[in-house]
Prior knowledge:
- The chain is about 20% helix and about 20% strand.
- It is built from two helices and five strands, in the order ββααβββ.
- The chain has about 90 residues and is α+β, with helices and mostly antiparallel strands.
- It has a single domain, classed as Ubiquitin-like (UB roll) (Roll).
- A hairpin with a 2-residue loop joins strand 3 and strand 4 (about 65).
- The longest helix has 11 residues, at about 25-35.
Amino acid sequence: MLVKLFASFRLPGVDRVEVTVVPGATVADALQAVFERLPALREQVLDPVSGQVAPHVQIMLKGRLIRDLQGLDTPVADTDTMALFPPVAGG
């Protein structure tokens, strides 16, 4: 599964991560695989108290916001693409 990182979630030379997910995996499982490779992202993506996606973070799976699907319980496939967007501001 391809996980794309945008803006401040990118690390030097790392704008995407390939992770393997098993049949029946969810967005939460895919994120766990990403956090195992990039541990610093966990505190930026998840709320430390609830363990849910932080309110200011947007996660898209196949072009749809996971909050409009089943959230962290949304099923994923190894061929899917997920994108992580941090909060952005500008004018």
